[in-house]
Amino acid sequence: MTSLDAILATKYPAKAHARRVADGLKALGHSGGAIYLEAQKTRLIEDNDEPVPFRQRRPFFYLSGCLLPDSALAYDIDADQLTLFIPPISPDDVIWSGLPLSPAEALERYDVDKVLETTEVNATLKAIAESKGNKSTAFAIAEQVSDGTEFRSFSEANFKVLKGVIENARVVKDSYEVALLRKANDISAKGHIAAIKASKTATNEREIEGAFIATCIANGAREQSYHPIVACGKNGATLHYGKNDEDLIDPATQRKKDNVLIDAGGEYRTYCADITRVFPLNGKFLPETRQIYDIVLQMQLECIDMLKEGVQWEDVHAYAHRVAIKGLLKLGILRGSEDELFDKRVSVAFFPHGLGHYLGMDTHDTGGNPNYADTDTMFRYLRVRGRLPAGSVITVEPGIYFCPFIIEPFLKNPDLRKYIDVDTLERYWAVGGVRIEDNIHITKDGHDNLTTAPKTVEEVEALAA
Predict the structure, then answer these.
(1) Are residues 248 and 195 located together in one domain of the fold?
(2) 183 and 161 co-located in one domain
(3) Which GO terms describe its biological process (predicted)?
(4) Is the CB of residue 236 less than 8 Å from the CB of residue 434?
């Protein structure tokens, strides 16, 4: 058993997470009381008797580690007691789905102090409140509490603060969470390798997507962190391209298009990988694509080198633009001085999005404090603001794109057009876009790259050859 498997063979640290959330409440001036959370409900598809695909509520999972639908939990903060409530056995359900987890089995599996049936939720909440003389607060999340759940015995039911406290607590991952993210990355790396290999015989983007998803499922990641992006040629210029149904043969030349951008990650026990790679369809990058790939890889590697506890994320993002500007100047796509191009935000025409985002149970994980009202176009779409804490996991995903919709407004602006060489630019439209993305664990003195998918030109071309 590897060290990673050994960590994941233990219980998900739900109790430690409950204590962390309680500490967050206390930091806001809320002392004692109870935390109450519910799992996602089983719901049927409209006009159909099939259930909606299940996705566990992240706040509930964070304090329970439980993937069962229709469950609940209560954490008595003062007594430090975590109770999980699971649905009682339904004879009708057993006929179709077999026996569910028993309370005794659930107690063995999950990091909780007690397991009861959901029919005992109200009695348990009442007992917690009465033990404190009915002078404590119940903390829950608005619109995530079932009708009939009663907080009358508490002096107050607070539905405003708990969600934000949990989201802030989730930013810093413990070793178990990092192991889950590493596992998701390991599986996803296999998927990316399979996708590149599948491209040798594929005729359509969807075949590459299918190879990635099948490999994830075969290796234990049945769910995807998000719908994969498989964009060939100019489709790579669309940041969140999602059709994945275009033929790989260029109808004008009757040969395979140059390259594919694949942004895909498997989800392992609710924790996400988010990886982007670009590879050639003909075994070797065309010169223009290779030139852009080299710039983006340099952007990524140099930005990753900057990462450690306390680094200002805005500074890393700005540095990525500096590297992009130098590279595009060298190619002749941009002209002028580096500082002037930076100050005029000309590089935003080619790198319009933020450098990355927090990663965890959500692909765009909580706690980033973005400011989408920022008037500065270089920073408007940053999903993370401020200094990175040790224990956070963040994506580093610079890109350079040749998207007419984004670039043409710059070309129509007399003050900005002079910085872009239109004749040189013409040679690069076919590149579409290049983005390279890894998942980075921030440590006190540096960082740990959780992503193992190949990304050097030599590795990628060897797989695609």
Answers:
(1) yes
(2) no
(3) proteolysis
(4) yes
Structural domains counted in the chain: 2
- Partnered with residue 73 across adjacent β-strands are 37, 84
Report, as an integer, the average pLDDT of 324-331. 98
Q: Which of 170, 194, 211 is the last residue of a domain?
A: 170
Report pLDDT digits (tens) over 32-90.
999 999 999 999 999 998 999 999 999 999 999 999 999 999 999 999 999 999 999 88
Cβ contacts of residue 285 below 8 Å, gap of 6+?
258, 259, 293, 457, 461
In this structure, are residues 335 and 419 in contact, taking their beta carbons and an 8 Å threshold? Answer: yes
- Same domain, yes or no: 233 and 350: yes
CATH number at residue 358: 3.90.230.10
The answer to whether residues 287 and 382 belong to one domain is yes
Residues 6+ apart with CB under 8 A from 57: 37, 38, 39, 40, 144
What's the Cα-to-Cα distance from 295 to each of 12, 54, 408, 439, rounded to whole Å? 40, 41, 22, 19
Residues 201, 76 share a domain: no
Task: Quote the DSSP letter at residue 99.
Answer: -
Q: Beta strands of 51-207 (E only): which ranges?
A: 72-76, 81-86, 114-117, 137-139, 156-158
Model confidence at 254, pLDDT cuts 50, 70, 90, reads confident
Q: State the chain's maximal CA–CA distance in angstroms.
A: 79
Q: Is 175 exposed, middle or buried (0-12, 13-18, 19+ CB in 10 A)?
A: exposed
Q: Are residues 131 and 183 in the same domain?
A: no
DSSP readout, 19-33? HHHHHHHHHTT--S-
In which domain, by residue range, is 425 found?
175-464
> Do 141 and 209 belong together in one domain?
no
In the chain, the amino acid numbered 336 is G
- Residues facing residue 83 across a β-bridge: 74, 114
